[in-house]
Amino acid sequence: MPEEAAVGCARPTGGPVGEEPKTTSNNEQKVITEERSMIKVGKKAPDFAAPGYQKGKFINIKLSDYLGKWVLLCFYPGDFTFV
Amino acid sequence: MSIDSMFTHKMWDDDELSKMVDGGVPFPMLSDAGGKVGTVYGVYDEDNGVEARGRFIIDPDGVVQGYEVLTPPVGRNVNETIRQVQAFQLVREAKGGEATPSGWRPGKATLKPGIDLVGKVWKEWKTEQAFD
Fold it and tell me: A2 pLDDT exceeds 70?
């Protein structure tokens, strides 16, 4: 699960959670297409990696780390606002 | 997840959230500086550089079962989110044998989808159940 890790930037990993990205090439056009893919219910969530903070530690997680569990992924406008 | 850095998350948790929740927030507070993840999930507002109040229910197979996206000034209903997770857990467990009609919450009747139910929902489920 979440491990203490070096600072990085959040990024989509380029494919649905639990699956290999559709392309392994560095074709920029394909990456952009993938990043614009939208969410559909009944379809796999786009996987991503992101840095974060949890209980006194800086962490790095991937959505795919949570396969096998229920996940609530919540976005909000900014810290110090209400959630 | 928000566009704030993990350092800001730490300050928020230390200075404010830990005053609301004993020990601070237990779950990961993720940083999406630049909104790349938010863009893929359709919640990143490029003009303002912030993310909308998006909430995605993802099942153990990584499948999106439901989502809700609100503009910033209106907060969420956490009880409704929990109710939806409970309903999705029930129907997953039932493997298609049960469905949760409008207004369902734990303890209330489910429906058994099948040919016998066609045209008979009115016998099994009353309109008031959507509201009680």
Answer: no
Residue B65, sorted as left (phi over 0), alpha (psi -120 to 50) or beta, turns out to be: alpha
How far, in Å, CA of B103 to CA of B89, rounded?
16
- Beta carbons of A73 and B23 less than 8 Å apart: no
Task: Tell me if chain A has a CB within 8 Å of the CB of B84.
Answer: no
> What pTM does this model have?
0.86
pLDDT at A25: 52
Report the distance separating Cα B71 and Cα A66, nearest Å: 27
Residue A43's Cα: distance from chain center in Å? 15
Query: Residues B20, B21, B22, B27: what is their CA dihedral angle, to the nearest 10 degrees?
Result: -150
Chosen from A59, A74, A81, A82 to mutate, greatest number of chain B CBs within 10 A = A74
The pLDDT confidence band at residue A22, using thresholds 50, 70 and 90, is low
Q: Which of B10, B66, B72 has the CB atom closest to A53's CB atom?
A: B10
ipTM: 0.93
- Per the CB < 8 A criterion, the answer to whether B1 and A74 are in contact is yes
The pLDDT of B2-14, averaged and rounded, is 97
Q: State both tokens at B123.
A: 């016998």
- Which residue among A52, A73, A77 sits closest to B9, beta carbon to beta carbon? A52
pLDDT of A37 strictly over 70: no
